[in-house]
Specification:
By secondary structure, the chain is α+β, with helices and mostly antiparallel strands. The protein is about 55% helix and about 15% strand.
Length: about 180
């Protein structure tokens, strides 16, 4: 059974409640109905559909969730997923960025300066060269990456990637594509 099939089965609220009740230890139609707060008829219909799909085994009124299918489907989906796009053409930089950037967000600010510089050089690219940004806009752009905008702003200024004067910032360093 694949992950899409499982997701489709769980898209129905009644079937989701039945699976949850079974996962929590209910073993009969009556126990599932009580735990899920569903009428017995709805539980029976959902259990029949889940059993036909193979996610639940059914022996008269006794039900059992085949929980091992969740892990197997997740592993198969992970193996079939395409590898993530590299964040940098340089393998060393990509390794650092892959360790600290997930889904377009910075998971943490690197403690080691060399790694922090790689991350900051990647981050500073949201600022256009020649454009002046008020602090509020700098904060908004950095908040997309990480909640500690003050630390990011300070690191960018300290490393010479951004310059600041009278609450206005501009890009003054980092790699620029031409």
């Amino acid at each position: 059974m694949d992950a899409a099939t499982i997701a489709g089965l769980l898209a129905d609220p009644a079937r989701l409640k039945v699976v949850a009740a079974l996962a929590l230890g209910a073993g009969t139609l009556e126990e599932v109905a009580a735990a899920a707060g569903l009428p017995l008829k709805d539980v029976a219909l959902a259990a029949r559909r889940l059993a036909r799909a193979g996610l639940v085994t059914r022996d008269r009124h006794a039900l059992a969730l085949r929980a091992e299918l969740f892990g197997a489907a997740a592993r198969a989906a992970a193996e079939a997923a395409p590898p993530p796009e590299p964040l940098s053409a340089d393998p060393a930089q990509d390794a650092v960025l892959s360790a600290f950037v997930r889904d377009g967000r910075l998971t943490s600010i690197p403690a080691h300066r060399s790694k922090r510089l790689v991350v900051l050089d990647h981050l500073v690219r949201v600022f256009e060269p020649g454009v002046r940004y008020p602090e509020r806009e700098v904060n908004a752009l950095l908040a997309v990456w990480h909640p500690d905008v003050a630390a990011l702003r300070r690191y960018l200024v300290d490393e010479g990637l951004l310059s600041r004067e009278a609450g206005v910032y501009w890009r003054s360093g980092g790699y620029v594509e031409v």
